Amino acid sequence: MQTFNGLYAITPDTDDSERLIEQVGAVLDGGARILQYRNKGSDTVRRLWQANILASLARSRNALFIVNDDVELARAVGADGVHVGRDDADIAAARAALAPGAIVGASCYDSLELARAAVAAGASYVAFGAVFPSATKPGAVAAPLSLFAEAASLGVPRVAIGGITAANAGAVVAAGADAIAVIGGLFEQADPGTAARTLAALYR
Ligand SMILES: Cc1ncc(COP(=O)(O)OP(=O)(O)O)c(N)n1
Ligand SMILES: Cc1ncsc1CCOP(=O)(O)O
Ligand SMILES: [Mg+2]
């Protein structure tokens, strides 16, 4: 598996597939190394269509492609893996449903204990957040940046998520996050490609 670090772009919920594809292309060209398709909507036809296109787009840029929540959708589009949280499939079940080398990422919120358990269950990476208040997910629990140093001994990549922007990402990288997962800091910006270049440059 490619090294799991750098800018981790997560797609916003949108029905505007054309604009989404254009923005994701710009973000990948700007240096995002990992792309997650995250759509909390219920239109399964649109989600399959969008995920298929984005899987091809990511592959064309040698980026990893992860599907949020939906193991079946990840398998259907040949994704590199899935990301699961407390309300989603468990790690072992997700891994059993995907190819042997699949990536299974786990949300660990503000809990080092959850991260230890996730790694023991086979998680490929652990994600902590929200590290800052998130307009995308206002109810997300707050996670301190200190978790990244504390989690260094777990031996898997540590991903930060929540309210990350060009203004605060430097502190997250300095705290030890191997990757920064970003939605609004990319897709709510006037120029997502430039925002991606700024954030990706923190890992060079
Ligand atoms: C990289 C990454 N980290 C955390 C999340 C959040 O997942 P989850 O807690 O399951 O919440 P939803 O995203 O499903 O609302 C994520 N998706 N990606
Ligand atoms: C899914 C999720 N989990 C914790 S915060 C968050 C939303 C991240 O979006 P943004 O980068 O716009 O804050
Ligand atoms: Mg989830």
From TrEMBL:
Obligatory cofactor(s): Mg(2+)
Matches recorded under Pfam families: TMP-TENI (PF02581)
Enzyme Commission designation: 2.5.1.3
Gene3D superfamilies attached to this UniProt entry: Aldolase class I
Class of this enzyme: transferase
Binding site for Mg(2+): D69, D88
InterPro entries: Aldolase_TIM (IPR013785), ThiamineP_synth_sf (IPR036206), ThiamineP_synth_TenI (IPR022998), TMP_synthase (IPR034291)
Binding residue positions for 4-amino-2-methyl-5-(diphosphooxymethyl)pyrimidine: Q36, Y37, R38, N39, K40, N68, S107, K137
Keyword Magnesium carried by entry: yes
Annotated binding of 2-[(2R,5Z)-2-carboxy-4-methylthiazol-5(2H)-ylidene]ethyl phosphate, by residue: S134, A135, T136, G163
Ranges for domain Thiamine phosphate synthase/TenI: 7-185
Keyword line: Magnesium, Metal-binding, Thiamine biosynthesis, Transferase
Molecular function terms from GO: thiamine-phosphate diphosphorylase activity
Entry annotated with the keyword Metal-binding: yes
Pathway per the UniProt entry: Cofactor biosynthesis; thiamine diphosphate biosynthesis; thiamine phosphate from 4-amino-2-methyl-5-diphosphomethylpyrimidine and 4-methyl-5-(2-phosphoethyl)-thiazole: step 1/1
Catalysed reactions, as listed in the record: 4-methyl-5-(2-phosphooxyethyl)-thiazole + 4-amino-2-methyl-5-(diphosphooxymethyl)pyrimidine + H(+) = thiamine phosphate + diphosphate; 2-(2-carboxy-4-methylthiazol-5-yl)ethyl phosphate + 4-amino-2-methyl-5-(diphosphooxymethyl)pyrimidine + 2 H(+) = thiamine phosphate + CO2 + diphosphate; 2-[(2R,5Z)-2-carboxy-4-methylthiazol-5(2H)-ylidene]ethyl phosphate + 4-amino-2-methyl-5-(diphosphooxymethyl)pyrimidine + 2 H(+) = thiamine phosphate + CO2 + diphosphate
Cofactor details (free text): Binds 1 Mg(2+) ion per subunit.
PANTHER family: THIAMINE-PHOSPHATE PYROPHOSPHORYLASE, THIAMINE-PHOSPHATE SYNTHASE
Similarity comment: family membership: Belongs to the thiamine-phosphate synthase family.
Record-linked HAMAP family: TMP_synthase
Annotated function: Condenses 4-methyl-5-(beta-hydroxyethyl)thiazole monophosphate (THZ-P) and 2-methyl-4-amino-5-hydroxymethyl pyrimidine pyrophosphate (HMP-PP) to form thiamine monophosphate (TMP).
Identification of the protein by name: Thiamine-phosphate synthase
Gene behind the chain: thiE
